[in-house]
Design brief:
This protein has 193 residues and is α/β, with parallel strands linked by helices. The chain contains 6 helices and 7 strands; from the N terminus they run βαβαβαβαβαββα. It has a 7-stranded mixed sheet with strand order 3-2-1-4-5-6-7, sandwiched between helices. Helix 1 runs parallel beside helix 6 and helix 5 crosses helix 6. It starts with a strand and ends with a helix. 39% of the residues are buried.
Amino acid sequence: MMKNIAVFASGNGTNAENLIRFFNKEESLMRVTLVVTNRLTAGVRERAADLGVSCLYIPKEMWKEGTEIRRCLWERGIDFIVLAGFLVRIPDILIEAYPQRIVNIHPALLPKFGGKGMYGDHVHRAVVEAGETESGITIHYINEHYDEGTIIAQFRCPVYPADTPDDVARRVHALEYEHYPQVVARLVGALQE
């Protein structure tokens, strides 16, 4: 039976595009059928349209309570939610409606460099400034606190002494593109068993 995935993204949407391309193949039993964003100007909207995936804009003020968002997801038969650079806290009502079915990717090795305000270039800059010798990605379930949900998987890359935040970002993005779709596929596949 087909499983429907919603990808939540706030920005340019390169991870969302990667997920859509990975899942939306003819033979797949899992499909990204919806992209949700909180920003009208998010590049992910155009990427979704180019790939034939519906995109739903939900303004920030609707995320506090979440009842309308939950209704929209249920109406579209969404089974699993994947956060891909989504910068709004997920309301408790969605966490309760989708237990162990909402995952996030964080561009560092949690618990280091996590929490509110730690996203994208902020994380890579902090990693370099701290003199870390490695970084990577953490894929985790979400809970009511930023970046504190149960860790599902981590993948590592080196950080060299001469690295800039952009150097670290390139290595981390490569890990995201390679591993995030595969981990999500494993988790969604487990729903079918």
